[in-house]
Every structure is written in C-alpha cells, then in structure tokens.
Amino acid sequence: MIKSTTIQISTLLLLVFTFGCASILSKSQYPVSITSYPPGASIVIEDKSGNEIMKSTTPTMVTLNAGNGYFSGASYTILFSKEGYETQIRTLTPSLDGWYIGNILVGGLIGMLIVDPVTGAMYKLDEKVNANLTSASETSMEGLQIIDIAQIPDEWNRHLIAL
User: 159 burial class (0-12, 13-18, 19+ CB within 10 angstroms)?
Assistant: First the structure.
C-alpha cells in the first residue's frame, strides 16, 4: 500500500513539474469576437510581420494564437473599413497570463522557461475587439470649428499669439 501511494505521489509530482502551469490551466489560442458599429464593416487581420491572417466582415469570430515563438507574444493589426465611414485600425496585443506566474509555485523552471514560452500559453489575448466607425461626413474639415484651448496639440501652442 505504501509503495503504491509513493508511486502515485511521485507520478503526480512528475506531471506537475513537467508541464507549465499556464499550459495546464490556460490556453495558447483564443477565440476573439470582432464587432463594429455599424455592423458589416470589412476587416483585414495581419500579424506583426504584416502577413494577412484573415479577411471577413463584422461581426465575426476568429481563433488567434497568443504566442509567436519562444518568449514572443503574437500581436495583430485589425483594419476596419466600410463605405461612407473613416477607416479605423485596432491593435490586439498579448498580455502575460496570470497562470504563468503559477510556475513559481507549481510548474517549476521547466514550465517557466520551456513549456509555457514555447506553447505560447504564457500569454493571453483580449477576447473582444470593437470599432465604432465614424461617418466620413462627420470628420469633414469644411467650415469653421471652435475648439477648447486644451484640445490644441502642443506643437501648435508655440504659434499662438496672445491678444
């Protein structure tokens, strides 16, 4: 009985210290919901190297990798366009998955330095991206605009003349 318990505990400890905490408790790919207002915008998703990952229209769902190689998180650029509206760009960047820190307590150095960085499980992605498209007629610069002095960019301030 003691020998069987020892083998079971040893096997459990081996598994715990062989895998990374984030690899066990989290994921390396995330479903990302992409929406826009108004809906029906065309989107193009590119990775950080500029490679096109997907073309679609909103609303849509895409599964994206959180990692992009050893200790490298994947980031994406999403271009939203719709006739009659200004084009918008959103960037989706990874953040450190909280379960990765669990390697300090459970996964050990193998999980922290090898398993989670290689699988991409050390990173997580936001699961929602939204763009509120602005009508092209709203952004037209025709006519006079009155703005608050606090809205003037710093580089313009040096050209202002006090009256």
Answer: exposed
